[in-house]
């Protein structure tokens, strides 16, 4: 099938005439379509469409904007299974996880649609008589949304839905690895009657589409989820034109297991967090820190469970771990395993590209565990974005916290303990935007803020009420009905 960009309410070819294909990473003979390899000229058309649509869309009452989002949520709900199957075919995550990805998009859309009835501002007393003071939310303008492939429905809804409910217009550049998922979501907005130019979709690569979009002088805000290196580059584009920039970047997320923790429960959380989505989550657990009294015991349990994980096509209900998204990711993970071995870490299981039988048709990598990993190593410090878990030993609670915080990232974190005092201390001590107690590092809910500290971003948050904050600006209004000039700050 041949797909097109969506600009100004129309499905249109790109200016280049070039195309790229989307393949199933579990079986590269399975093709999901051909998509436009767009360029700066297509970006220009999309931004101009968003610019033209902005004034009228921003004047639509927010509850009415919410009705369109609600209609989109209903359609996505109706197509949940169909969309999940497309997602599994396009980026590889097992079907039950793909269903969860779509459900998160549904939940976010319903949640944000309801905010059209609120978009809360506030009133406050004036220091002067016969004068009212209030603050209201206003849209920022034209938003560039640049999204990754690992959550191809959920993450776009985190950006697009709050942007639209606030009255902004959007130009969306999805990852090329999940172009079909982007088409399916955009098609829903076209069907529910979103006005022309309010949402525009431009397919293509980062240098050809992403950079021109981020640099465009009429783009008022850039929202990006991806690598820290690319995030820094985009931050500079925004700074050059004083645009707002929201960055959701990498993670190197720790789980701490103390001696009093429930080890069986911890194993469940570690397996899910480290190898769910084949480790391709920004919140994935890539570091495990175990208090020395239970280090060997927990490792034995963990390795036993990991070796039983079944690799395969995510559409197969017997599959536990699907492929990684493409060959370059597979090769990068293999290089990190080589580095870990050279650095002296102990490889306990996995560590190889999987090529047996049907696995040779795709990009599979064995779930991998390294033990005795020290803080100065690359596999302790750098985001691998694959099914590789680095395990370190801690002397006690304080040492575990020190190790957990010994990284430039700070997205998610977790601790397993039955001692309430240590659990509450960890809530403050762990340097992360998210902390779980007696659970893994993944499982965010749409009504709570999502984001991190340090190199994980630039301070913004997605989801929850924070999403409305990200995509609105405050406007303060003073209403003086005294019928005389009143001067503030006590000036006579």
Give the helices and strands, then pairings.
Elements: E1 5-7, E2 10-12, E3 19-24, E4 27-36, H1 40-59, H2 62-78, H3 80-91, H4 95-115, E5 122-125, E6 131-139, E7 142-146, H5 154-165, E8 169-173, H6 179-192, E9 199-201, H7 206-215, E10 221-225, H8 228-240, E11 244-248, E12 253-257, H9 263-275, E13 285-291, H10 295-307, H11 327-342, E14 346-349, E15 353-354, E16 364-365, E17 368-371, H12 378-381, E18 388-394, H13 397-405, E19 409-410, E20 412-416, H14 420-429, E21 434-437, E22 453-454, H15 464-470, E23 472-480
Parallel strand pairs: 7-8, 7-10, 8-9, 10-11, 12-13, 12-20, 13-18, 17-18, 20-21
Antiparallel strand pairs: 1-2, 3-4, 5-6, 6-23, 14-17, 15-16, 19-22
Helix pairs in contact: 1-7, 2-4, 2-6, 3-4, 3-6, 4-5, 9-10
Can you walk through the features of this model?
- The protein has helices at residues 40-59, 62-78, 80-91, 95-115, 154-165, 179-192, 206-215, 228-240, 263-275, 295-307, 327-342, 378-381, 397-405, 420-429, 464-470, and strands spanning 5-7, 10-12, 19-24, 27-36, 122-125, 131-139, 142-146, 169-173, 199-201, 221-225, 244-248, 253-257, 285-291, 346-349, 353-354, 364-365, 368-371, 388-394, 409-410, 412-416, 434-437, 453-454, 472-480.
- Helix 2 (62-78) packs antiparallel against helix 4 (95-115) and helix 2 (62-78) packs across helix 6 (179-192).
- It has two domains: 5-249 and 457-477, 3-Layer(aba) Sandwich (Aldehyde Dehydrogenase, Chain A, domain 1), CATH 3.40.605.10; 253-437, 3-Layer(aba) Sandwich (Aldehyde Dehydrogenase, Chain A, domain 2).
- The model has no long low-confidence stretch (mean pLDDT 97).
- The chain is globular and about 80 Å long.
- Helix 9 links the parallel strand 12 and strand 13.
- It is an alpha/beta fold.
- The chain has a seven-stranded mixed β-sheet with strand order 14-17-18-13-12-20-21, with helices on both faces.
